[in-house]
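Practice set, problem 2.
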Amino acid sequence: MKKVLNGIQSFHALGLKKQLIAVAICAGLGMTVNITHAASPNVSPPSVKAGAPHVYVVKKGDTLWDISGKFLSKPWRWPEIWASNKHVKNPHWIYPGDRLLLCSLNGKPLIGKDEGDGCDGIIRRYTGGGTTLRPQVRIEALNNSVPVIPLAHIQQWLERSSVLPADAIANTPYILGTADNRVLAGKGQSVYVRGQGLENGQRYGVYREGEPYIVVDEQGKKHNLGVELLQVASGVAVRNENDITTVELTDSYNGEVRRGDRVMLEQEAMLPTLFYPIDAKQVRDGGKVIRVLGSIGTAAKNGVVTVDRGTADGVEIGQVFSTYQEGEIVQDPKTKEKVKLPGQYVGSLMIFKSFDRISYAYVLESELPIKVGSNIQPPRLDD
């Protein structure tokens, strides 16, 4: 049984494959979860959408983005209006069947879970008022909780894709051949791996190198931001002889194993359980969409893109960006001079996996197709 601790904002994506158990223990111990990404006091509170429901019962298949979009014109401002129950260890988790109420506190919208005492109880628990709750245990399957976004749309990149600096993989072990001299190998077969550092009994992933992320700066200089690795298999090291290790393949994913594929420790994927707007000063500006994944040319809602900003630039998993299309350059019909038109808002992205210099982002919404070269910016807090 896996305990879910106070303040955790991410969970292992392995829950997609295994029935992990999450325990949320409600106790009146004064524990709090602070949303540190709330709006500045000088910014107006989020606007509730016209026709927003006063009561909403969470349904199976809902996502947190879907739910917040039913109440807010700018769904990413959800953390500002969510009534975190200070008596619950995981106050931002929502489950199918939960009854959400739209309340008001000091003239500002507030949404919380109805525990049978309506908005009065939600506000009392949120403000830390004199409510004594008896300790209770709620046991739920982790993959029964409402995800931020549909996991099926990002599972391939969340679980099986990674980006590493080119020099970081240059000396990693690689597939030398197969036990039966076949060109390709899959689950149930043995392969020979050449390289140092593999330990018998340890589980490893087999990765295929993809196209490197090459960008050109304003001075025309090329930079390699990393090489994409796609996991094609998993296996266990069973024998070592000099620098060659025999690995038995236990699982196949996105294709068969080939000679030259890289072998390294598997990485555990993480996914945020809460999204939030970012401080404009936190992430280095000038970011762009540099690749559309799983599609040719453009991305739309539910698509996945790569942006040229990573942890080294201040990016964190869960952050939301607005994306803008570069304005076209047109000729002024009167003066004949070339004029660049203003950029146009095209959609919103959420970072779900971040590396040193790039990140994967899920397209939350799009008004126009998102193209390579589109700019990314912190979302505007004002409505």
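Problem 2, part (b): a different protein.
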Amino acid sequence: MTDDKNAKTSSVASRRSEEKSKKHKHGFTHALYTGEISYGFIQRRKLWYTISIIVIAISLLGLLVRGLNLGIEFKGGVQFRSPAHVATSTVDDIRRSVLSSGVPDMDSTEVVSLGSNAVQVQTRALDNEETTKVQGAIAKATATKTDSVTYSKVGSQWGDQITGKAIKALVVFLVLVMLQIWAYFRHWKMSIAALIALLHDLIVTIGIYALIGFTVSPSTVIGVLTILGYSLYDTVVVFDKVRENVQDIQKRDYTFAEGANRAVNQVLVRSINTTIVGVLPVAALLFAGAFVLGSGPLEDLGLALFVGMIVGAYSSIFIATPVFTQLRENEPAMKEHTARVLRRRERAAHKGPQVTAQTVAAEGPGDVTSITGSERDQPRRSTRSERKK
């Protein structure tokens, strides 16, 4: 009989050791997915809302105070191109030469290198006399003939057309997004939550552009529209897991908020990994455009993508899902289900845990203490062979 007890105890210990080794093997990601580790993203939604409101307020303040640094395509101007042997100081030398050309209000002049054999200069709108002066200043700085410096005047009408088309594309995109999410998830409140997250990403990205002072060019417009698609993808991934966890929620022993929070924890690592993998090449693009090649379009596109992808990953976790959860929790059926789950837990807490023969057999004699919550000193009972003696 003693041997049987020892064998059973050894079996229980071996099973526990295997379970511990499995937990250790799977690690942090598995613990998040199974719910062993859970962070209260939904429960702390007021904190995320506050942070987002502050960031949006700063972005809007930047737009109102500093405004956007519109490129020549949107406000009009003159674009010069000149052959040059581009060195480290070439861009600064050309800019100083243009500023000292005698033409007023040239502080907004932008000079970028086009590879190693040419430069591009963009200025405000100029008349013919001012254009000739700037052309000569560029030729002097680059040590080339005046005729080699070409220029073209860009009107603001083209920029107005681009702006109008971009706004139309944005409106159509948002409408199609709402319809697509409603059709796929069969719930209009998911569409509202996704739309709020997209608007959040749009305002923050444009606000950061205003604060940093980067030039808004057609590349910026392309980048902004691109990051909206990325943000939508991240949000749909989270929503899909939320739908899986809250399906038949009335039959579950957890609330809607708890199911949604578990979904966020389950996709957290995936979202972080996806964002890192996407941001790294974009960061390289931004670095190359800003510091290596001096390319304006690469710089504008890289910043829009870099900021938008990070903000999109944030909004899918901290904005879209909490907003959708809050909208669903206000439904009468969800309120009733939440109250029922809480009442059931309260009754279970008052009733206390019970120890059954099956529990002891499954967990082993060493676990009775953990179930009952207290230790009891019982006198040792003698065996039948000892009583016969």
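Answer key, part (b): Residues 77-154 form a domain with the Alpha-Beta Plaits fold (CATH 3.30.70.260). Residues 5-9, 355-378 have pLDDT under 50 and may be disordered.
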